[in-house]
């Protein structure tokens, strides 16, 4: 056990939710902690720091990644999108968020930001996934509250357009 | 005085809490913005059982950014927890726990040193520099071995690992067993799992010297009880302590206890006069929060020749782990299981024995459905064994022995308030297409495919309060559960609830109740919760209680406000209150539609109207409590599985759940509770485990070994309702949050046993991971549960 050496901090510049942001990070600072602590984007939830639960998922250059498995300095110059950057439509929720509400796809809400971003990545590349494909795509995001039924229903509704047919 | 029929209760209303959660705006404890907070990390034991000879902290204290390094010796007896079941002094020991271990550690993860630094990173750096001189001791990780002679002592002060021994008998059990045509026995070892909410535990504390207030933010299900337990430990009056439960990322019973960290962090904040924060990491959550449901059940049934159940005997050995959860103790599993030994069957005699062993494992505590889950799995697995042995249909055998729909007292002291005990089973069979399914099962077997069907009918306590607590063997003190309701000058309504929500949608469901009672639009009702400074006192959210207990208290409180509205309205309309009615936001004189007044005018008059009546007290606010009598929901969960005998993989084809929880406040929320709890039942039965090596090393130190169910394991779930309102609760609700996790494991175990019945296999443990199924197939009954 050697004494810890102070680590050199560096300036990280990146685009977050469409805006240029910068912050200071020592080399070991996780991207999840950088987003939460430096940029105060607390919609990034940390559930395990082991890459297993998916709660901290953000979109990095359009791809869903676990921000707890990446150092902030590795995101230098990247384009990051968090739940705070989901563009709001009428009523302040986008179509996928509305479907989550309509189908009771969330209870405590802790896993929700990560699931929304993972699902967005699927919708961006495949507009007609089957329910099995949706389940496959979301299998890296743990939800402990819902048993997943409402989540799968919500994403499926957006994919097949049924969410826009008979909203309550 | 009349009020129009409910407009909101019973409706599928979307949740008002959702937009904030969906936009990532909700604030969980880690999101609370407390400038200047210092961070805590703990040095925890790497040994299952070890003597501490020396702790060297000098190097850690010199580490960059460190403000304090605190050992158990420095804290001494301050803040120690004393835990027992005070009404059972002859049967239950009393445990004392210091906040940090001093002489020895009892499990891997036992906290030994607290390091406070400028950041969590720096605190963890300094933890690495703490040197502890350990002397590893022999550990005990098996409950029955812990109770045997010569086992190492977990708590040396107690002189034994037997924390509790409780016996109970009602009816002539021996006579029933003597005259029985058949006696069956079953041993079932339900595996250790844990609630594993996605948000771990966390505490932030700040002492505001100017205001003379200690504020503690903690991820808890019962903020008021945290305050009541915490204040005396810190030698502060409760009035100077404020506990805030912010958004809570799942609790499921884990967060219905006072943890040592919830005492330590505020203590550090008081001493350092700086805000202090601790957020549990996942490794700590897996080894040092609270495990649950591990139970060894040895059951016997006396059965008459015609299949009538005469009597049950049960011996339950619980495993509390290294400490007793405060305040429930580890009895929350075995004692609740034993109290529900009769289940919903009409037997004439029952006897049980409960032992609670201490072992060198993470302490065990409540998890949704507590001991009812393993107790149900053991009893129902035995009943399927009986049906197979007698050549009877498992559903018909159950229905034959089920209590009458009007309910009545159970032998263990439960008062069932009526339900659909038989109808729920019939409906589940109908939804399954039971006859056709049996046909299909026969056909598939001829192809070498193994389909199985399992039933699990049950009663579920709801509205945990004095009566139900007593029926489960816990002290039946009066419970203080109140809500405050205020109609504001503009006739909007504020509800101050001490029943904190962790995803159950109270902000929506409680608003529905209030809107109906006060005749206002539901959007005008705001439910404020989780902050002891702004909420009426309540013991929190657990035990499927809020719809019943808060629901009842709200009826009383809104009733008082309504009476005042009628009195003021009568004065304004120059009518008798008896002739008034409240409909859609207006008070009017019955039969005189022209004579009416907006409720907002009434409220404004109450607060500041010159013409308000002078002969009544006009405050439109009421705080009322409710302690309901015993109430029980009932349900039947049935599962259809196919077992691949080559790989051991269980494919869950369908699950049906027929639920009768009395009056439903919001069917979407009820269905969500069922789906979530069934999902957890699936996890506990097929996937999750927190096993230990013989030396006390935890073998699930990451989520990879624990294995949560994912979207790929989500079953086809069909839900139906029968609504038999409770005749004894204030609003007819019975409470239902836990049922899915009480009932689903038994249904799955029975379905798997049914599928594998051609191989002569009966199931007597969980979890049933593929390797376990393969071992059973290779050597029936010889598999050792992890």
Tally of DSSP helical segments of chain B: 22
Q: Write down the Rg of chain B.
A: 28 Å
**How many distinct helices of chain A?**
5
The overall number of domains of chain B is 3
3D shape of chain A: elongated
CATH class of the largest domain in chain A: Alpha Beta
Give the CATH H-level superfamily of the largest domain in chain A.
Beta-grasp domain
**Mean of all residue-level pLDDT scores of chain B:** 96
How would you spell out the order of helices and strands of chain A? EEHEEEHHHH
Oligomer: heterodimer
Q: Which consecutive residue ranges of chain B, at least 5 long each, have pLDDT under 50?
A: 782-786
In the CATH hierarchy, what is the architecture of the largest domain in chain A at level 2?
Answer: Roll
As for the CATH topology of the largest domain in chain B, it is Aldehyde Oxidoreductase, domain 4
Number of strands of chain B: 31
Tell me the helix content of chain A.
25-40%
Any idea what the CATH architecture of the largest domain in chain B is? 2-Layer Sandwich
Q: Kindly name the structural category of chain B.
A: alpha+beta
- Binned, the helix content of chain B reads 25-40%
Mean pLDDT of chain A: 92
State which percent range the strand residues of chain B make up.
15-25%
Radius of gyration of chain A: 17 Å
